[in-house]
Amino acid sequence: MERLFNLDAQLLHDTALLAISVFVLFLFLSYLLWNPAKKLLQERKDKIASDIAQATDDKEQAAKLKAEYEAKLKDIDKEADVILSEARQKALKNETKIVNEAKEEASRIIARAREEAELEKKRVADEMKQEMVTIAALMAKKVVSANIDTSVQDSLVDETLREMGDSTWRS
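^ thats the sequence. predicted structure below, dont judge the formating
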């Protein structure tokens, strides 16, 4: 009778040898391929874990920086208010100073104008006196020349000289 698989000692021996060869080949290839692949996967896992940890640290730092910048922005608003109030105070001081200087200058100008007006009044009054004296002298000359003769004229000159006195002629 013939066998279906030809199950004899040769087949069993070949099968056992093949199983041992496959097992040895599996051990050898697992040593060559499995450990480096496992090591590569572990390195990748460690790298991913470190990247996640780094990302978490970066996120925490970003949150801290964000809070710090927000605090600085709030402080900047306060600082801007302080700077603006100082600028307003300086502007008010400058305004007061400029107004006071302008008032002083205006009072000096007014005083100078009053002095000039007084001097002008005096000058005009002196000129008017001179004109009046000149006109009076001309009128007197006309009146005197018509009415006075030489004896009356001499007596008037002598009388005037006596009234004026010697001190007038010496100065």
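Helices lie at 9-147, 150-170.
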